[in-house]
Every structure is written in C-alpha cells, then in structure tokens.
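User: Can you help me understand a structure? I only have the sequence.
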Amino acid sequence: MNKRLIALLLLAVMVLVPFASALAIEVEIEPEKQEENKPETKPETKPDNMDAVPSSCANEYQALQAARKAREAAVADLGNKKAAAIAAIARYNEARSAVATAKAELDKAMATLAAAKEGKNAENIKDAQWCVDRDKAVYDKWVAAAAARKAEMQAAEAAWKAAVKAYEAAVAVENSAIRAYNRCAASNYPLVSVDPNLTGGVKTVPSVTLPSAGALR
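Assistant: Let's start by predicting it. Here is the structure, written out as tokens:
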C-alpha cells in the first residue's frame, strides 16, 4: 500500500513540475514580449532644412562669425583705450592742480621778498630770495610736468577716438554680415524664419563718451 502511494506521488511530481516550470518561464518571458511589442518612440528632431541652413550658407555664416569676433575685439580695445585716456586726463588734472598750488606759493614768496627789499634788511632779503628761488623751481617743475601730461592726454584721447571709429566700423561690418546671412537663409529656405538668436540681431552703436579735463585743460 505504501509503495503504491509513493509511486503515485512520484508520478504526480513528475507530471506537475515541468508544467509549473513552463508557467514560471512563461510569466518571466511575457513582460519582455510586451516591451518588444511597444511602439518605438524617436526623439524629436528639427526639420532637415533648419539644420541645413548653416551648411548651405557656410561662407556667409563664417563671415558672420569672423565679424562678430572682430567686433568683440574692437569692444575690448575700446575699453582699454578709454581707461588709458581717463587715466591720462586724471594725471593732467593732477599736474594742473599742482601748478596752481605752486603758483600761489611762489606769489607769496615774491610778496615776502618785495616787503624785505622795502625794509632794506640784507638778511631778510637773502632768506626771502631763497624762498622765491625754491618755489620758482617747484613751479617750473610742475609747469613742465603739466605740459608733458597734456601731450600724453591728447595722444590717449586720439587713440580712444580712433578706437571709437574702429568699433563703429566693426559694428557696421557685423550688421552687413548678419543681413547677408539672413538673405542667404531666406533665399534657400523661404518658409524658414531665421532665428535671431543665431545671428545676434542687428547691432546699434551705443553712445561712447570720454570725461573732459574741464576748466584745468
């Protein structure tokens, strides 16, 4: 009896285990089949003609990039020249202020000398003359410095004005390159509007001014 029961149990195991394994395999494979049956999603792409604009107008695009770099270099040079001119103006104004101070000291020394001569005191005259000579040397030094610094200031201002003209010319060249590129894009792809971010838009020349040396000039 026990042998028959054991034999029946073994038979049941031999039949059920493969069936259960098949079910397990089917359950494991089914999700993969479902994933394979999903429709493929491709990343969004721009229209072919939008991507082709730069390559179709390669010469115009390269000219635009070169013009943009030239304008950026002109902006940097303009900033450097303006800083140099401002510094030169400050040095000139400093010298002119020193000239005015030295002139006032010299005038006082000369007034003291005149008073000493009226008193006819040789010692006082000698001391007053020494002060006049000293203050005259200081005054002459600052007059010469002011003249030299004025020349430096004028040269710096001339360089700055030249940089302004170079900057304005660079802006004009870039604007021309922008228009040429836009015309190329529009003629090749009339249904495509050129992205203004690609060209940067037409530039305008901002006001560029330089501080003046003022009344001391």
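Now, to help you interpret it: Residues 161 and 204 are 18 Å apart (CA to CA). The domain at 56-210 is CATH 1.10.287.620 (Helix Hairpins). Let me know which part you'd like to focus on.
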